[in-house]
Amino acid sequence: MSKSSGHKHQTIRQGNELWFIFMCLGTIFLIPPFITIFNSSLLLGGFPLIFIYLFTFWVLLVLSLYLYAASSSKSD
After folding, report:
1. Contact of 58 with 25, CB cutoff 8 Å
2. Which residue(s) pair with 31 in the sheet?
3. Is-above-0.90 flag for pTM?
4. Counting Cβ atoms within 10 Å, is residue 1 exposed (0-12), middle (13-18) or buried (19+)?
């Protein structure tokens, strides 16, 4: 195996591990036991805290996956 193909295999493995981490975090932060932490009557800017949490987490998850996909397509 050449040195460059070994590096490519290592990069693919790291990418798969990062993808797995994104999926696990997305699952953990969106399951009901974790969401109930933010389920309160507190309003921020007139919006319930749980809506702000869900929307913010969703935006951050989509943005991080977009940046991951963009960086992995540049390395190919």
Report:
1. no
2. none
3. no
4. exposed
How far apart are the two ends of the chain, measured CA to CA in Å?
18
Q: Whole-angstrom Cα distance, residue 3 to residue 47?
A: 54
**Are 52 and 40 within 8 A, CB to CB?**
no
pLDDT at 76: 58
| Placement of tokens 């951050």 in the chain | 60
Q: What is the pLDDT of residues 7-41, one digit of tens each?
A: 555 555 666 777 788 888 888 888 888 889 888 89
Q: Rounded to the nearest 5°, which phi and psi values hold at 48?
A: -60, 145
Nearest 5°: phi and psi at 41?
A: -85, 5
